[in-house]
Amino acid sequence: MLKLNGKYILWDHWVKSYQRDVLNPVRIFHKLTEEHFNLTCGRRMRNHLAFDILGHRMLELIEV
């Protein structure tokens, strides 16, 4: 759980935003894959996955 401008961002917000983007014919954030959200023990340690999800583009996707 993160806090931005006094409001909390939950993991569920990211997941729902990704799912909405996947169903959109004109995807906003092509970089995200199922690998970013269905983490195994080995994947949890990969920094590039966290950078993709916590990046500025993902915040734009959540705000839509």
Strand content: 5-15%
Note the overall shape.
Answer: globular
Number of strands: 2
The gyration radius over C-alpha positions equals 12 Å
With helices defined by DSSP (H or I, 4 residues minimum), what is the helix count? 4
Strand order in the sheet with the most strands: 1-2
What would you note in describing this structure?
The chain is mainly alpha-helical and 64 residues long. It has one domain (2-63). 50% of the residues lie in helices and 9% in strands. The protein contains four helices and two strands. The protein has a two-stranded antiparallel sheet.
Brief digest:
The protein is mainly alpha-helical and 64 residues long. The chain has four helices and two strands.
Task: Give the SSE map.
Blueprint: E1 2-4, E2 7-9, H1 11-23, H2 34-37, H3 47-53, H4 56-63
Keyword list:
64 residues; mainly alpha; two-stranded antiparallel sheet; 4 helices; 50% helix; 9% strand; globular
